[in-house]
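Lecture notes, continued. The same structure-token format from the folding unit now serves as the input rather than the output. Read the line below as a description of shape only.
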């Protein structure tokens, strides 16, 4: 009795051991393959079957089939996320520069090249969104697109000023080019005016500019873009114009050099945007302007819009 019981017990142990072996042999193989590639998975499906036929007829008839049929549906869901996770990051980088702003009707590039810190990014004078007109000391009273005040804007300012570092010395080096903000057609070119206007040191006060006795008139270029949107580039260097009226220009074309002609305290670019009705638009999105940005990337490198054309 004891002997026969032991035999039965031993047989049961062997049976359990075989079932266990079959499970551990096949499961890691299919699980591992599911994480890698469909090609490997196919090969292991083939491997599983010979193991089963070798190990035993009874178990092999039921379990491997059940396991294979279980494994097949599992393969697909596992593979799909792998494929998606590989593709998605690439797509995001190519199509969507992360921006907290809504896109406007046009996407401008920064109209200057800011490499080597050619322009002051600490003091950029923006469009004034305060509707009141002030006089005297009040010309410093203003509100820019994000609620900033002087020196981030000044009263009635209709554009954005980027000051050239190095002032007249940098201007005379003739490397500070102005670039078109978008594709368009040149509407007007104004040239020939004195380009070394500056703050009048003998009559200091807001807006006191001297052009050393010459007429205080700016050299400038205006360009019309899609939808009738117009960009204006003021205070350009005399005789530096690279385009003529009627020229078709592409985004990023050099059109002139930065100067200090007209009402200008120092060499800088005044970049102004207007809609088809001639109303001033602040290209910067913000709480005090509008939710749409007119820049391709408003917060670009160096704290200024990116020098990227769409
Ligand atoms: Zn200005």
């Amino acid at each position: 009795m004891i002997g026969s019981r032991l035999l039965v017990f031993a047989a049961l142990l062997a049976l359990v051991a075989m079932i266990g072996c079959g499970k551990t042999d096949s499961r890691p193989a299919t699980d591992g393959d599911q994480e890698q590639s469909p090609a490997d998975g196919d090969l292991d499906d083939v491997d599983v079957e010979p193991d089963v036929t070798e190990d035993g007829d009874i178990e092999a008839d039921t379990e491997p089939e059940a396991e294979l049929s279980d494994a097949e549906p599992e393969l697909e869901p596992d593979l799909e996320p792998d494929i998606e996770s590989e593709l998605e990051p690439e797509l995001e980088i190519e199509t969507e520069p992360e921006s907290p702003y809504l896109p406007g009707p046009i996407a401008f590039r920064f109209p200057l090249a800011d490499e080597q810190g050619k322009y002051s990014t600490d003091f950029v004078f923006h469009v004034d969104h305060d509707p009141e007109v002030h006089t005297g000391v009040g010309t410093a009273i203003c509100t820019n697109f994000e609620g900033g005040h002087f020196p981030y804007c000044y009263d009635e300012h209709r554009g954005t000023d980027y000051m050239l570092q190095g002032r007249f010395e940098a201007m005379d080096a003739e490397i500070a080019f102005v670039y078109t903000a978008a594709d368009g057609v040149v509407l007007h070119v104004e040239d020939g005016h004195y380009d070394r206007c500056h703050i009048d040191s003998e009559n200091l006060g807001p807006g006191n500019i001297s052009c050393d006795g010459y007429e205080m008139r700016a050299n400038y270029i205006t360009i019309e873009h899609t939808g009738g949107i117009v960009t204006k580039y003021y205070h350009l260097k005399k005789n530096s114009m690279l385009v003529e009226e009627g020229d078709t220009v592409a985004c990023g074309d050099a059109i002139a050099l930065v100067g200090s002609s007209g009402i200008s305290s120092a060499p800088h670019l005044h970049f102004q945007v207007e809609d088809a009705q001639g109303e001033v638009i602040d290209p910067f999105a913000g709480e005090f302007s509008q939710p749409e940005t007119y820049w391709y990337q408003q917060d670009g490198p160096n704290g200024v819009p990116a020098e990227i054309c769409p």
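Point for the exam: The chain is about 30% helix and 15% strand.
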